[in-house]
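<instruction>
Derive structure tokens from the sequence
<data>
Labelled lines for chain and fold
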Amino acid sequence: MTLPLQPLSPLDGRYRQAVSGLGEYLSEAGLNRARVEVEVEWLLYLTDHEFFGSSRLDEDQRRALRDLVTSFGQPEIDELAELEAVTRHDVKAVEYLVRNKLEQLGLTAVEELTHFACTSEDINNLSYALTIREAVTGVWMPALRRVVAELRRQAFEHRAVPMLARTHGQPATPTTMGKELAVFVYRLERIIRQLEQTEYLAKFSGATGTFAAHLAASESTDWPHVSEEFVTSLGLTWNPLTTQIESHDWQAELYQRVAHANRVLHNLCTDVWTYISLGYFTQIPVAGATGSSTMPHKINPIRFENAEANLELSSALLDSLSQTLVTSRLQRDLTDSSTQRNVGVALGHSLLALDNILGGLGQISLNADLLAADLDGNWEVLGEAIQTVVRAEIAAGRSSITDPYALLKDLTRGKRIGQAELVAFVSGLDIGAEAKARLVALTPATYVGLSSELVDYLGA
């Protein structure tokens, strides 16, 4: 028995609700709406400037044409499908849709200015720049900022909670949970600033980027100026030197930065997962939820595990997009046409991961008592402090010890020692009384340096 028609991608099935915001821009319908917008705005630009004997449309006519964009919905989607079934060309179908609208409005006099001097890629590259910009700045970035805001909140909340560090997975110089979370905030906010500087480039210069058809139609027009003015009127950055296609370098740069953010987030997930495994974070039970089909006691860190998987998928796709989009055979090939249709998939997996990370961060609670007990069981981490103080005392002429590192290595390497052993050891050291008192008073929980103060570098 054959199943009813089903979505092939989990982004359009199981996880649709979490990523639906991207569909507004990066779906086929979203792309077609942007294509309609570019066609309409180009027609209005030409008539506004009275090209080839045309005249500016009145406000009702302009509003009616722009309504084709603002009210774009299922009727237009269906009409485009019918037109494309005949034209076998998606952009040509959009052109005919606009022409049909002009006929309905009684504007056949300017119909031939529709798609004037345009190659399909003139429409496409502008449309992709518009839709990708809106998807990134209006959907993906706000989700990233929500995650960073929650991390920032927890970094300040836990700034003074001491925690045993684990360099190479082994007990190491203590830190605080807040400072460790602040590291991720700092990394991600730096990437956000880079993303905010993204240039969304576009070209509008004809079949091979030479304005040849434009010049044939009007030799006296400054077509590069017209092109730049039109592109920038849409809030995009004009690219004057291209082939038939805009070179996609800005897309490669954008996707590399998003992939970089993904990888920092992946690092966050693996660390939080490990902290949960160690018991540093406890997970807040969700009523009715099942952690394991056979082990009822379990609360699995599935939010972070799901995020890891989706961040890996997103980064793999973004890497592929970055690598392939910057190459086009000679003046044009169609590999980018298929490739760019997956931008929404790449961002969708990242957006789904962000949704899971935010949900996961909201379902954990710091177990400060366990962190304190862990510190109290690892007094050997003070070996670093002791040997460093001894070296300072030697330099100051207050000690005759010859090899403080070896001395502490013999005492602590691969061993568990307690407070009593360390106090006895420090008491017998050949160092000044003030240094000795300072070391005797030190505990693993207080040996956190400037961890709490460092969180302030995040700013307000």
